[in-house]
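LAB NOTEBOOK - FOLDING QUEUE
OPERATOR: T.R.
BATCH SIZE: 2
PURPOSE: Compare the predicted structure-token outputs for two unrelated chains run back to back under identical settings.
PRIORITY: normal
REVIEWER: second-year student, initials M.K.

ITEM 1
FIELD SEQUENCE / FIELD STRUCTURE:
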Amino acid sequence: MGNTVSCCVSPGGSPKVSRARRKPERPDVYQVEAELYEPDSGPSLQHISDREVPDDLAPESNPSDHPRASTIFLSKSQTDVRDKRKSNPINHVSPGQLSKKYSSCSTIFLDDSTVSQPNLKSTIKCVTLAIYYHIKNRDSDRSLDIFDEKLHPLTREEVPEDYCRSDPEHKHIYRFVRTLFSAAQLTAECAIVTLVYLERLLTYAEIDICPSNWKRIVLGAILLASKVWDDQAVWNVDYCQILKDITVEDMNEMERQFLELLQFNINVPASVYAKYYFDLRSLADDNHMNFPLESLSKERAQKLEAISRLCEDKYKDLSKVAMRRSLSADNLVGIRRSNAVLS
């Protein structure tokens, strides 16, 4: 504690703060501390959570890093949602809402999609709809060569001249993503992480997803999300079996540049993941893409109760360990649980 060298200057300290408060004799302190390190110790790398965020990328304004920042895709979809409501003359009620199933005293409708186990088909539809709104309501056409489909085509077919002027339809985006997820056997959670990485790329690299680059950006996000999320990730060469005309070298280069543009920040906190999941549910509700509902039978209720007990036993042990350290938004253990009663 009395050592001014180790107390005043730390390897993970902010260089901006040290320059602002530096006194004339401070260079000597830096020189003394530099001499304390062994020459063979190698460079000291900061953990990703300790790195400084640029002023123009404050955490509160970046939805892929901060749980309280609103997602970009949901804000871009609001313009179309308001237009749909204005075009509906009867109290903004659509036929989809009239045909929606609602629970009653005798019948309970619920879907099997949860935060930990989302419905695969519905989640992919929501994620591709979010990508569709990103393309349709983009601010400009900023892009990079590595994502340009004209420079790096995914098929041997000649790219049309007007490829950068016609926006893709939602069904085309869904078909492209569904093919990749079906062939690579990816999970619904991977689709949500893909959307997180996509919005993080657009924010960090200051580019837009547009007709000329959407396929390669989505492919790069899926490639990275599958490696981060799944224990047994799909190799780059496996994607070359799905997209027959793409080379492994092209996939490797795209992955490398994707990571560099993300500043190697591939961390997705649980709070951010949950925010994207529920915002996708809101997007589905606004566009009348309801998740499949089924009536709650006795067999389904017993299955849900068994899953609940299994999770409760799992988190009992975790709560004992977590009580020894401070709680955070990503590790909530003080949640009150109520037991399900089956008749």
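ITEM 2
FIELD SEQUENCE / FIELD STRUCTURE:
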Amino acid sequence: MSSQVRLRVLPSARCLFDEPVQVKVAGLRSRQVVTMRATSKDEKGVVFSSSATYRADGNGEINLDRDPSLSGSYVGVEAMGLLWSMRADKLHTKLKKLNSLNPHVVKFSVHEEEGEGRTLGEVTNERCLIGDGVSRLTVKEGNIRGALFTPPGEGPFPAVLDLWTLGGGLSEKRASLLASRGFVVLTIALYGHDDMPKNIKVVHLDYFEEAIEFLKKQDKVGSAGVGVISLSKSGDLALSVASYLPGVEATVWINGCCSNTVFPLYYKESQIHKALMYDSSKSIVTESGAFLIKYNMDNPLAEENKGSLIPIERAKGHFLFVASEDDLNWDSKGYMDLMVERLKRYGKDNYESVSYPGAGHYLEPPHGPYCPSCVHGLVGKPVLWGGEPRSHAAAEVHVWTKIQEFFKTHLRCDATQTKAKY
């Protein structure tokens, strides 16, 4: 490595996963062309990498906030482009970051453009999933299986139930990052985690009621009710939680459905919704081997499927509907439009909606690698998720801020709520 070249990550080489950083290079020759690279490994050992070509200015400096990539994994000025453009060295693979205690470690490096690309400098960016002072507690109480994240300090803090996608285990990333932003967050699994069954045939709303009661009893919780955040299949479960259970003040629905899907929904041992099903024979296999499944779901408005529609007009709390316009998992934008139309028909104004052109199905906390395809938990085969990497990355940045603002607006905290629990 060249002793003159300095590669820096600012303001610090250690940050939270959802925080942007400045990547700067100094000590190059005037107008020197170099290759910038980013590499990382996930929990399964899969390598993710990206590269981009840059030209230094007259002072031999490069600033990714200011300077455009000339070629590579992306082009143009993209301060965080080396992160969101990273691709796996294994086809149909999504970055696995299930354990919040393990940071996402990225090595940035700068290389000569000529010859074998001698390394001129490198620096490691440790991107933490859990903030300093945030506590993590494994939850195994009653039927609940999950993890509870609590911010440092006395509080009071608003409470959020994170449903993520619920299938096949537990993902902690979104929950731990929300807790790092000032929320008490309980993330739960539905099946396939710990001692839970590997497969299920029905879903019981009572499970979520139990989780909400557990969350509301936590010492630092100051909101009278709770928020719920979801994605994909858990979106319709979040709608049912908001529509049937008391104490839900704010619900974030991301790329879900307007009907109860896949599994019949029960409450107090009685079925309250049939399942909207899908036709796997409609799947289209693509050149990459991934399937296009967007048109597999049955029509929720068909007469025989109306028993699956969720009566969201019953909800007392507020909704934030988030849809990606290039979602290839299913027509989330169409489902969102149906829900908005339904609430308007009932004279409701307790919602806001946002949609993102060019974004795909998996909207996550920002600055992670964009995933075009991976194995679908229910389909059992790789599927296309949709989206264009740059637009998808921008959507994740925007919606992450919007989600936090939505919860802070609608989850009112009262210090007397916490004192009453001691």
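REVIEWER COMMENT (ITEM 2): The radius of gyration is 23 Å.
FOLLOW-UP: none requested
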